[in-house]
Amino acid sequence: MILDVKGGTVHGVEVAVWPDVKKLPTLSVPADVEVARLVVPTAEQKPVAVLQMDTTLVAEADPSERTIHFRLGAKRPARTVCIARDILVDVDDHQAIKGIWLLNVPPFPSDE
Length: 112
Description:
Blueprint: E1 2-6, E2 9-14, E3 21-23, E4 34-35, E5 57-61, E6 68-72, E7 79-84, E8 87-91, E9 97-102
Parallel strand pairs: 3-5, 4-7
Antiparallel strand pairs: 1-2, 5-6, 6-9, 7-8, 8-9
């Protein structure tokens, strides 16, 4: 997953390589979601232009694959915030990203 960061604020999310997506009978979006900005250190605050991490990535989807939840790393309690229309982020107590929700995902192209 790639986070598009401008001025320290996440402006977009890209899935560069899709992992296997596990379809669940139901996948409920968290009900208690607050609107927030996701801010990461800028080059002025921390001299890092690119950060790459190696962690477990699990993708789960509802039956229609219109809601997809990516879980990052070990499962830990987290709160969910909305950073953009149809993009939610799970953040743990240490302010680490633990998951990303993509809502209203367009249908995948058919394999014709």
